[in-house]
Amino acid sequence: MKKIKTHTLVGGVLIGVLLVLALVAALWTPYNPLGIDLRGKLQPPSAAHWLGTDEFGRDVASRAMRAASTSCLIALLTVALATAIGLVVGVLAGFVRGWTDRVLMAFNDTLLAFPGLLLALGVMVIVGANQWGIVLALSMAYAPSVVRVVRGTVLSLREREYVEASRMIGNGEIYTMWRHILPNCVAPVAVLATSMFGWVLLSESALSFLGLGVPPPAPTWGNMLSSARPYMASAVWLCLVPGLCIALTLLGINLLGESLRDRLDPRTEKS
């Protein structure tokens, strides 16, 4: 229990700080994240600029705060869309079975055959490199994993006594899926969605680093890292700040996911 509480506390603090920064940045930042001041470019951390300035004289702290807001929004929307798609397709495939299951899973397996980042790149070529394009592309990349988890859970649930009882008293298939199957898929999907948040954040940062994410000058941690490459030796804070933001966020979400898994898995409580 001490281990679970420690993970919950540390992960909750890290993610809590991230969410607070993201909410504050949506309303206020110390400086204009897009404001250019060439006379103050590449200044090291100081009292005026706590985390220094970049090659255009923009405040790094303000840009990191605004990037947290952008990255969190993209990750939350992507996880929500991928989870919704995975729940609908997974429940239909696992509960209805027959040709519906075969068609849906054949398409799902086709998507799983492609690496997630490669599939996202292909989708973005079609829809364009922008915030909503990233959400759609990453949702299509991660939804097949949710479908697999949900379908496996539904296959074990559809033979339970309470499902048979629901059919015997005359409830329709849609009502049975909604009332008895879907609620029992929440626990495994919640754990997967927590981990997926970190994966999406890392994938979005990778796309932005490659120049295929949110177009500049809008800040994201990935494109901040990309623009810092020529200055890694002379202005190390430019890469340290977004890199630490990504690392601490992934650490926090992984700790929360592990704690959530331990609480929802009774076998972990016994061990």
TrEMBL record:
Membrane topology (UniProt): Multi-pass membrane protein
Primary localization: membrane
Any single GO CC term annotated in Swiss-Prot or TrEMBL for this entry: plasma membrane
GO biological process: transmembrane transport
Membrane spanning residue stretches: 7-28, 73-96, 103-126, 132-150, 181-202, 231-257
Entry keywords, A to Z: Cell membrane, Membrane, Transmembrane, Transmembrane helix, Transport
InterPro entries, A to Z: BP-dependent_transpt_permease (IPR050366), MetI-like (IPR000515), MetI-like_sf (IPR035906)
Domain named ABC transmembrane type-1: residues: 68-257
Source superkingdom: Bacteria
PROSITE patterns: ABC_TM1 (PS50928)
Subcellular locations according to the entry: Cell membrane
One Pfam family it belongs to: BPD_transp_1
Family: Belongs to the binding-protein-dependent transport system permease family.
Protein name (record): ABC transporter permease
Lineage: Bacteria, Pseudomonadati, Pseudomonadota, Betaproteobacteria, Burkholderiales
